[in-house]
């Protein structure tokens, strides 16, 4: 089973804004939709499948109204920042099953200009598990810090190794003209930044920005006469990971399940992957994801990210756009993973282009790593 | 009560599935659940065993002893109440009964907390209705 090269990404658009006090969230969605449809050479009237998240419980209906869409397939899967990665797989399945033909996925957020404390606001969903957690003060950031502390304890991972991830991704951001933070940083800068929730320093954390983006997914047949060279959706899978009745090993991630399934569906091995887009909410997210996806063994992530391996020109370049750590993070970053991977596979990335890029893997992590999180893996191939 | 003395942090909702647990905390007793059908232990408490969906549940009195599985010293949290009491230690404690629970480590300096450190439950009656199971070094 699989998509058999019958489903493609035909258009992508990353909204260039990082600070948009003059725009609404819905406007950013609409501008992103316009950008992705123009990129594909399609019209809003062609859209018959619509996907979004982060707009409230039935916000997908409000967005459909705002864009005056009449889709025959709707999906508002909300599993945190990874949602948009999962949307691509869901869109591919819907297209393969004939439920729709032109799927539009949009995202928009004004988290930064609204001064929304994404990581340290102490959000409280009010579901049963929250009632055994919220009283003790877990922040989003703190839940990732719990994992980092355990990883350091079990495997000897160091703050310097985590800092290497932030430094590498900032170097990539310096090559992206729209990245929010472009000035290079050093290991010392990361280690000297204040500790927000031990052992994570400020520069181990993603930034907060405004932003948005959109993706158009369609059938390979429909894409044949469109504007851009299509990118194949080769495989996708998702998983979730929670406290497992109080028994969970915090060094296990959802990526451990979704990664191998997506790669098997795509028929690729680790050696085939030319670049990865890894959700970098925090440096520890990247390190644990690389381990759980199987690019190295558990506990070896610290050494794996050193010596340039994950930088441009290295064995496995990641987050070439500058990631959430330096380019943009409006609260839910999954869509940007897919947009950058698509641009890499089309060869559109200029000075940050990965040479001979034929297979890209995206992995989104949503929610809170140490409490409940989702993982969505997507494997894309050059058209 | 004057506004500045009110307890401002998030409080658990005590409902049909959880009231046995919270009432026991008020008596300074910590319970975990065990399924009588399949034997699986679980935390947090809930009506049905997720392993086999049986609702034949035994409440097992915990020794209150455990070790720190992991922790983080929180220096920033904008949420009401917590922002006034920084830094504080958020931790998972692994109970002798085999389950891990999210809690706070109290009764020592944050920098003295270590993974593997033996701890003992320390009940904190934060409101007349809610007593929270926190942990302190043994």
The assigned CATH architecture of the largest domain in chain A is: 3-Layer(aba) Sandwich
Q: From the alpha carbons, calculate the radius of gyration of chain A and give it in angstroms.
A: 19 Å
Walk across the major sheet of chain B and give the strand order: 6-5-4-7-8
The CATH topology of the largest domain in chain A, please? Answer: Peroxisomal Thiolase, Chain A, domain 1
How large is the count of helical segments of chain B? 1
Main pleated sheet of chain A: 9 strands, mixed
Q: Which outline of chain A best applies? A: globular
Percent of sequence in beta strands of chain A:
15-25%
- SSE sequence of chain B, one letter per element: HEEEEEEEE
Helix tally of chain A equals 12
Structural domains of chain B: how many = 1
How does the helix and strand content of chain B classify structurally? mainly beta
Task: Extract low-pLDDT stretches of chain B.
Answer: none
Q: How many distinct domains of chain A?
A: 2
Walk me through this protein's architecture.
The complex is a heterodimer of chains A (383) and B (138). Chain A is of the alpha/beta class. Chain A has 2 domains: 131 residues, Thiolase/Chalcone synthase (Peroxisomal Thiolase, Chain A, domain 1); 222 residues, Thiolase/Chalcone synthase (Peroxisomal Thiolase, Chain A, domain 1, 3-Layer(aba) Sandwich). In chain A, strands 3-2-4-7-1-8-11-10-9 form a 9-stranded mixed beta sheet, sandwiched between helices. In chain A, strands 5-6 form a two-stranded antiparallel sheet. In chain A, strand 5 and strand 6 form a beta hairpin. In chain A, helix 8 packs across helix 9. Chain B is 6% helix and 37% strand. Chain B has one domain. Chain B is mostly beta strands and 138 residues long. Chain B has 1 helix and 8 strands. Chains A and B meet through helix 4 and strand 5 of A and strand 2, strand 4, strand 5 and strand 6 of B.
């Amino acid at each position: 089973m699989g998509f058999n090269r019958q489903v493609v990404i035909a258009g992508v658009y990353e909204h260039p804004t990082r600070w948009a006090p003059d725009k609404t969230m819905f406007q950013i969605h609409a501008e992103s939709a316009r950008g992705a449809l123009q990129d594909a050479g399609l019209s809003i009237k062609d859209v018959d499948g619509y996907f979004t998240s982060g707009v409230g419980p039935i916000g997908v209906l409000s967005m459909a109204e705002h864009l005056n869409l009449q889709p025959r397939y709707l999906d508002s899967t909300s599993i945190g920042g990874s949602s948009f990665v999962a949307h691509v797989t869901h869109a591919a399945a819907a297209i393969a099953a004939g439920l729709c033909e032109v799927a539009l996925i949009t995202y928009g957020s004004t988290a930064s200009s609204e001064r929304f404390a994404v990581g340290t606001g102490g959000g409280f969903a009010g579901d049963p598990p929250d009632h055994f957690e919220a009283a003790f003060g877990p922040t989003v950031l703190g839940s990732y810090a719990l994992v980092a502390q355990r990883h350091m304890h079990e495997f000897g991972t160091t703050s310097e190794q985590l800092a290497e991830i932030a430094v590498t991704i900032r170097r990539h951001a310096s090559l992206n003209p729209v990245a929010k933070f472009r000035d290079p940083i050093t290991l010392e800068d990361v280690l000297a930044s204040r500790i927000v929730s031990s052992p994570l320093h400020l520069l181990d954390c993603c930034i907060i920005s405004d932003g948005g983006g959109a993706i158009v997914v369609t059938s390979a047949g429909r894409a044949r006469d469109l504007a851009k060279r299509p990118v194949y959706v080769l495989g996708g899978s998702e998983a979730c990971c929670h406290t497992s009745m109080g028994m969970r090993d915090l060094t296990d991630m959802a990526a451990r399940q979704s990664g191998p399934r997506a790669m098997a569906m795509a028929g690729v091995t680790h050696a085939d992957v030319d670049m990865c887009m890894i959700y970098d909410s925090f440096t520890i997210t990247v390190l644990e994801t690389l381990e759980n996806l199987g690019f190295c063994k558990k506990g070896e992530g610290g050494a794996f990210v050193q010596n340039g391996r994950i930088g441009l020109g290295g064995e496995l370049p990641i987050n070439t756009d500058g990631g959430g750590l330096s380019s943009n993070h409006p609260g839910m970053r999954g869509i940007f993973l897919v947009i950058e991977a698509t641009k890499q596979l089309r060869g559109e990335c200029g000075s940050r282009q990965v040479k001979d890029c034929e297979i890209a893997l995206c992995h989104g992590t949503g929610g809170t790593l140490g409490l409940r999180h989702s993982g969505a893996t997507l494997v894309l191939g050059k058209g | 009560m004057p506004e500045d003395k009110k307890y401002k942090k998030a409080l658990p909702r005590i409902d049909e599935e959880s009231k046995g647990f919270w009432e026991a905390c008020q008596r300074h007793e910590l319970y975990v659940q065990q399924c009588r059908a399949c034997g699986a232990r679980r935390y947090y408490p809930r009506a049905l065993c997720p392993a086999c969906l049986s609702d034949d549940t035994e409440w097992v009195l915990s020794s209150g002893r455990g070790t720190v599985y992991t922790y983080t010293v929180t220096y920033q949290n904008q949420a009401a109440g917590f922002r006034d009491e920084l830094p504080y230690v958020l931790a998972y404690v692994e109970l002798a009964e085999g389950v891990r629970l999210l809690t706070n480590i109290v009764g020592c300096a944050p920098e003295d907390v270590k993974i593997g450190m033996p701890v003992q439950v320390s009940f904190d009656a934060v409101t007349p209705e809610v007593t929270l199971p926190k942990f302190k070094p043994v």
